[in-house]
Design brief:
With 281 residues, the chain is mostly beta strands. It has a single domain, classed as Beta Barrel (Porin), CATH 2.40.160. The protein is 2% helix and 62% strand. The chain has one helix and 13 strands, in the order E-E-E-E-E-E-E-E-E-H-E-E-E-E. It has a twelve-stranded antiparallel beta barrel. The chain is globular.
């Protein structure tokens, strides 16, 4: 399963029941359209270093159900868009129900997440994100694990309105075990709601933007952040393998593509490459 990609934020498939646990991860990300810009002249890329420290507890509720909760902090350092460097806090929890016992038995899950981030010098991005998740999954064989579900995200900025957004997302994920614990995984999703882009303001943007504000973050002057209605699709493929010299550690590498179709023809796409190490105690 992906260590860093957002779609995998609440999959306790490796959380031991009835135990305390701690997760530590660190990694690198390259985003080739960091501002979600539509025009070639506005597209910029950036390198990001990320780290997470999270602790939690899981608990069995009889023979068929379990719950878990975890909380922690995260840090992201941006090389060029330095104002986007931020420290965040996150808390999440989930309830899972498996109506039948067995290795290939289906399961169902409901979850929620609260996230707060404070940016180095981009106050319009400071704020809260709340997420709700409903999903189901099962192992189809000793090699194949499939999941799918719905996620709703509500974001509220504490300074300004351009980053006040809602998103509805449907997704499906598949893990394929290659050799032993080595995994090849994929994810596909569709979403609808609101997105924020940073670009040079023009008539087409002003005609459809629900909110627009000067953005101090880009590596260059004169760009604005604006919010529009949009639909989108995304896909990810990745590879996860244990680290031989470190117990309970895995190395993960992935590439993701996203395309967004915004109101008024404000469309954009981009690739994200990621690599990192995940360690569970």
């Amino acid at each position: 399963m992906a260590v860093f990609l957002v779609a995998h934020w609440l999959y306790p498939t490796v959380v031991p029941a009835g135990e305390l646990f701690a997760d530590v991860s660190g990694g690198w990300r390259h985003d080739d359209n960091i501002g979600n810009a539509a025009a070639d002249a506005d597209i910029q890329s950036d390198e990001i270093l990320r780290a997470h420290v999270i602790g939690g507890y899981s608990h069995l509720l009889g023979a068929h159900a379990s719950v878990f909760a975890k909380a922690g902090i995260e840090y992201a350092n941006y090389h060029d868009w330095k104002d986007l460097t931020h420290l965040g806090a996150v808390a999440e929890g989930a309830w899972r129900y498996a109506p039948q016992a067995g290795y290939t038995a289906p399961w169902f899950q409901l979850g929620a997440r609260l996230h707060y981030a404070e940016y180095e010098d981009s106050a319009i991005r400071n704020g809260y994100r709340t997420e709700a998740l409903a999903m189901a999954g099962r192992r189809l064989s000793d090699r194949i694990d499939v999941r799918g579900g719905y996620r709703f995200e509500h974001r509220v900025a504490t300074d300004g309105a351009v980053f006040d957004t809602d998103e509805h997302r449907l997704f499906v994920d598949l893990d394929y075990k290659l050799i032993g614990p080595v995994l090849l995984y994929g994810n596909a999703a569709v979403h609808t709601g609101e997105v924020v882009s940073t670009a040079t303001p023009g008539p087409r943007i002003h005609a459809v933007a629900e909110a627009i504000e000067p953005d101090p973050a880009p590596a260059g002057p004169g760009l604005n952040a604006y919010r529009i209605d949009a639909d989108g699709v995304s896909a990810t493929i990745g590879f996860n393998t244990p680290v031989p010299i470190i117990d309970a550690a895995t190395f993960d590498v992935a590439v993701g593509y996203h395309a967004v179709y915004g109101e008024g023809g404000n469309d954009y796409d981009g690739f994200i490459w990621e690599a990192g190490v995940f360690l569970r105690f």
